[in-house]
Amino acid sequence: MARRQGAVVVSLLAAVLLGACLPAPAAAGVHLSTLPKALDVTASAKPGQVLHSGVDKVTVTWSLNTTEPAGADAAYKSVQVKLCYAPVSQKDRGWRKSDDDLSKDKACQFKLTQQAYAAGARGSFEYTVARDIPTGSYYVRAYALDASGTQVAYGQTGPAAAFDVAGITGIHASIKVAAGVFSAFSVAALAFFFVVENRKKNK
User: Fold this and answer.
1) Where would you find the membrane-spanning parts of this chain (predicted)?
2) Cα 202 to Cα 36: distance, rounded to the nearest angstrom
3) What is the longest distance spanned by two Cα atoms in the chain?
4) Terminal CA-CA length for the chain
5) What is the CATH number of the domain that holds 42?
6) Residue 132 zone, left/alpha/beta (φ > 0; ψ -120 to 50; rest)
7) Domain carrying residue 46
């Protein structure tokens, strides 16, 4: 009997230790579909307008929707603004796909700013398009965050109001000129050696 009880205790201890070693299940992220669209978000860039990376600016503004009841933003502590790929720039690009689970979403990769939220006031931010923003179509989304940094509401300009960004290719005009010069030199050198070899053969 004592042996049987001892075996049971050992089995229970082994199960506890095994459970402690196993990774905890990943917590599900916040789902966009469950958030109220409580923020009114606008961007100065017009639909279809082309902004150039490292040069042009866009002003983003946000405020509580007038349709929201008084005090609806009591839990809002900060606002996080992101630049999101429009559907046309997500097509056939899995690394840019949107997902209702915000912990898995890949469409809104670029954080523009995060600021304290002022109840009843309109916030704004002037953003210079970063040099590392790729060419594509984008829209703006803003999240209201609570004290823990969790998304509790959102607003966006929407894919229908998407604007375009012309990214920097990394190839400057001087590099193109140098490449052209070297190409011409290579052709000339090849022709020169061809003539020299022919003369040697004729001699």
Assistant:
1) 177-196
2) 87
3) 110
4) 110
5) 2.60.40.2550
6) alpha
7) 32-166
Classify residue 191: in a domain, yes or no.
no
Averaged pLDDT for residues 38-65: 97
Domain assignment of residue 66, yes or no: yes
List the beta strands (DSSP E) in 91-175.
110-116, 123-128, 136-145, 151-156, 163-166
Confirm whether 108 is domain-assigned: yes
Count of domains forming the chain = 1
- What average pLDDT score do residues 158-176 get? 75
pTM of the model: 0.70
Query: Alpha helix (H) ranges present in the chain?
Result: 2-21, 173-202
Q: CA 168, CA 138: separation in Å to the nearest integer?
A: 16
Our CA dihedral for 193, 197, 199, 200, rounded to 10 degrees, sits at 140
CA distance 143 to 103: 13
Tens of pLDDT, residues 84-94: 999 999 999 99
Q: Is residue 26 part of a domain?
A: no
Tokens matching residue 74: 């009591």
Would you say 117 and 80 are in contact if contact means Cβ atoms under 8 Å apart? Answer: no
